[in-house]
Design brief:
Helices cover 0% and strands 50% of the residues. With 124 residues, the chain is an all-beta fold. The chain starts with a strand and ends with a strand.
């Protein structure tokens, strides 16, 4: 199983930027699909973006497309989420997740390993 640790969250004003990092350790990394999800208080966990580590192909939710970018550094076993033009509605705990087989998925249940999350708060 892979262990995931998120970092980079914090408090930012609307319109600002943050970059989240997800450091992975444990089993082989390069064949995985990595995803970012978020969960706001009282809401279900929702898909943000995902990347196939072998090809670099990415997908992103419509709500963040054009503002958030997912990327990876396979040599560092790290995945990033660059978040620009942040809005108050982006406030949530952001989770990194690993899917060890198959194509990427927007469903949380498809992911095998999860980090503990990092808080992102966007003030208006």
């Amino acid at each position: 199983q892979v262990q995931l640790v998120e970092s980079g969250g914090g408090l930012v004003q609307a319109g600002g930027s943050l970059r989240l990092s997800c450091a992975a350790s444990g089993r082989t990394f390069s064949s995985y699909t990595m995803g970012w999800f978020r969960q706001a208080p009282g809401k279900e966990r929702e898909f943000v973006a995902a990347i196939m580590l072998s090809t670099g192909n990415t997908i992103a939710a419509n709500s963040v497309s054009g503002r958030f970018t997912i990327s990876r550094d396979n040599a560092k076993n790290t995945v990033y989420l660059q978040m620009n033009s942040l809005k108050p509605e982006d406030t949530a705990v952001y989770y990194c997740a690993a899917k060890t087989s198959g194509y990427y998925s927007v469903s949380p249940i498809s992911y095998d390993s999860w980090g503990r999350g990092t808080q992102v708060t966007v003030s208006s």
